[in-house]
Amino acid sequence: MVQGSTNLNTELTQEWLQNYVDDWVRFYRKHTVDGELASYIPQLTKADPNALGVIIMGNNGMTIKSGDVDATFSIQSISKVFAFIVACMDRGVSYVLNRVDVEPTGHAFNSIIHLEMRKIEKPFNPLINAGAITVTSMLQGRTSDEKLEGIFQLLEKILGRRPELDVDVYESERESSIRNRGIGYFLLEAGVLESDLGITLETYFKQCSIKITVEDLAKLGLILANDGMDKTTGEEIIPRQIARLAKVLMLTCGMYDASGKFAAYVGVPAKSGVAGGIMASVPPRIREEVLPFMDGCGVGVYGPALDEQGNSVAGTRLLRHIASHWDFSIF
Ligand code: DON
Fold this sequence. Notes:
The protein contains 13 helices and 9 strands. By secondary structure, the protein is α+β, with helices and mostly antiparallel strands. The chain folds into 2 domains: about 15-75 and about 210-325, 3-Layer(aba) Sandwich (Beta-lactamase), CATH 3.40.710.10; about 75-210, DD-peptidase/beta-lactamase superfamily (Beta-lactamase). It binds 6-diazenyl-5-OXO-L-norleucine. 6-diazenyl-5-OXO-L-norleucine binds near residues 76, 180 and 208.
């Protein structure tokens, strides 16, 4: 495998960077065998377990695409970031943070343990299921479709098209939702839900089932890297304070109980989903040497074989490799 950090000053051409990424994707595709497809949602087992793709979309206009970039898959937990953003935009940041905290848990994304062990006033953070379901209950609207509208509108603004719902995934999600319903009842008992539990859960299942591509993830990651601004039009799509808060949550909680390791070894805000997507935001960096994507970039990854924490196994390793060779870390 090529180890790409030599001659960066002189050779940052698209072709040169493309060759590196192609080589790295080829190498890390072999790591997909170390993971497994999420089987607790039966529809997700239909994915190709050996798939791996990445798109890096830079502020400098350069885009590198490699591997299985044509796949469509469900957004899953990555939607939690956008539900949080929409809730903050609609209700205000303090309203939302009065009802859900910003603390990492160190537990699995769908853990119930802290709901039972510690009498909660509010869930730990908006990116674990308990916090995400609470955030979803704050979305405006009476029906699940009305509540979803804000998320769809935000995604449409960023992606330039309205994404669709994957109805098969939604139904599969709904039919295999015992744990999420359990979490919902704990939240109902704690009195933190702002909407009817049934409607809130329907909204949550639908938001997780929105169909996206690797390119969508790169675009979404890029907007967040730019603190909510679409640099091509100069439009602020997400208020800066909210975009920055979303990135804090991605960094501290976005990869669940692997968030500490991801921060240490990759060093950028990122969010994963159980269908195998990862969205990462690399802000502009200042370094003495010239490095790829110094003006910032969004990275979308797809690799549906997951590790024990529910993160793409090969996708995480690929991101770690790219980030360390091209010095993406924000630290
Ligand atoms: O709540 C669930 O089970 C899923 N629909 C979303 C979980 C998810 O993506 C966790 N991520 N790694």
